[in-house]
Amino acid sequence: MATIYCFTSTGNSLFAARRIAGEIGAEVVPMTGEAPAANGDGVIGFVFPVFFWGVPNIVRRFVERLEISDPGAYVFAVATYGGAAPGAVGEIRGLLRGAGLSYAASVKTVENYIPKYKAKDSPGLRARTEARLAEVARDVAARETNRAGRHWALNRAFHRLFPGRDPGCDSRFVVSASCTGCGACAEACPVGNISASASGPVFAHGCEHCLSCVHLCPAEAIDWGGSQGKERYVHPDVGAEGIVQFRKGRRG
């Protein structure tokens, strides 16, 4: 069976991975823990969000450690993004071990970096996302090839502004009195950086800055930067529980 490795923060990438998987008969596997040796019946995919014009830390580590045993494998990468994604998916090509990157694509979804922007979902955007995903899925099913856009020096320069480059960026989270101590933030964190306590979340300074804890908190009690008062976002067809269960290893 083909394998798609996925990292998701608010469900956009998981939705995309499942759409592609349905077209090619693939298993969707979370990018957590140790990277296994990848076989995937000759078809291996990566689906992930763009963070500050670059690849999330957890994705970079996973791809770097993944050993692809078949040098002739069809390997594809799909990046979801809300703002801009020039060259971000091209970074995967330089991270791969044992195979080249056969196909790369970007899919525009809802902007969810609410410290700076508002999450603006709409039926029109969803329709455009669905249409683009259908196109990408058809390409992958047909084993189309292309050359990933170059990962420019500008990408690297802009990504240096990414707060997640500093794992201690979690010291800037603010937790309001509306926190109920439910522990949803701890379950939401993809790297186990949060532990729940009666007084609220405790951050261990190993933050990926994916902001899942901000978006998935049912009380909207966690903020970072300028997120105060802004509507949270979780992909409606995935849901907070779907994200948590996927990260716990329930494959798609």
Write the layout of secondary structure elements.
Blueprint: E1 2-6, H1 12-24, E2 26-30, E3 37-38, E4 43-49, H2 57-65, E5 67-68, E6 74-81, H3 91-95, E7 103-108, H4 123-141, H5 153-159, E8 173-175, H6 184-188, E9 194-195, E10 202-203, H7 212-216, E11 222-224, H8 239-247
Parallel strand pairs: 1-2, 1-4, 3-5, 4-6, 6-7
Antiparallel strand pairs: 8-11, 9-10
Helix pairs in contact: 1-4
Describe it.
The protein is α/β, with parallel strands linked by helices and 252 residues long. Helix content is 29%, strand content 18%. It has eight helices and eleven strands. It has helices spanning 12-24, 57-65, 91-95, 123-141, 153-159, 184-188, 212-216, 239-247, and strands at 2-6, 26-30, 37-38, 43-49, 67-68, 74-81, 103-108, 173-175, 194-195, 202-203, 222-224. The strands form four sheets. It has a five-stranded parallel beta sheet, covered by helices on one side. The chain has a two-stranded parallel sheet with strand order 3-5. Helix 1 links the parallel strand 1 and strand 2 (26-30). Helix 1 (12-24) packs parallel to helix 4 (123-141). The model has no long low-confidence stretch (mean pLDDT 92).
